Sequence to fold (385 residues):
Amino acid sequence: TQAEFAKGIGLSTSAASRLVKHGLLPARRPEGVRRCTVDWLMQRGVPAQALKQVDPAEFQPGEVALEAQKPTETPKERSMLIPKPTLTRQAVEQFKLHMRNPFEGEVRSDAELFASGEIGYIHQAAWQAVIGGNMVAVVGESGAGKTTMLDGMREKILRENLKVVLIRPSVAAMEDSDSRGSPLRTADLYIAIAQALDAKARVPQNTQRRAKYVRELLEQSTKREMRHLLIIEEAHATPATTLNQLKRLNEEMKLGYQPMLGVLLMGHPELEKKLTRHDVRESMQRVSIARLRALGEHLGAYLQHRAKVAARDLGDFITPDGVDELRTRLTVQRGPRTAPLSMLYPLNVNNWMTLCLNTAAALGAPRIDRDVVRVAQPDVLPEGV
Fold:
């Protein structure tokens, strides 16, 4: 069943549904998901010659199993997250976006970084991992701004010439089990720390010698008044044993009372759930969790900021009722006792704005208004949308 498939390859129900019904791979780890999908199918007897690349262009309506066509999401939830659209030529001409689409692309300077009180709090929480040598987890959906926050931290360190060493182990193939990828082990952490402090480091293979060697490097660097931050990206895929070992590493690496190594975990909401598990209780009691929430009431201010970065006014692109409708469309009221589900995260909002610009141009509407947002559909517009 689709549920067994989702569980087998470690996807959420909605992500598995999009993959099965529309051939849409997740934005994160697409090749890893593709590989796990093929392995999962082969283990269940599907012959290799019958397998295809999981790609929308290679799906035909008759090839999708009838069982997979049964929706696993409510109609309101189905179309909230969309693939990145490409701005059509018609939209470029109508909205005069020949130089740049303000609702596309990564933040490239501090001036482009949208700041609200809550985002400022998240940044300060992350800095506590540097200043105090604490363990901090920044949790948010894909596209919520975790990478942007990290880029801002690196920019601040470079600009102000701060005495901070950022240690970023590779997580390109990381999964929480050997059967699905390459789990991040304690040895990997020691090697990453050593190489960040000494590019020519020859890390001992023996466990005790390796720990002693890394401690000596940290002590030497700390005495030079350097601070050290170990950053684990995609931390929701970190094995429980490694999370516990990170806590021990954070506690062990001290020079007297002074912490020598802060730890910053960055991951999806699954990370917060993992930190509440009994087998991760060592870390749970010591990790401060900061949540990157959806834009919510800040949606209008965010869109205005994006337009201003391109020296434009938001009214050139969208009407106030269009903003309200976008907020409504990307928010699901799930019940009287359940908090609304919001997908008003910067990356998703940017994708929707591009989609709506294309829709407005295709319909001949001068700007994005309520009706344009209502009819915008990511799977029916031309030119790659």
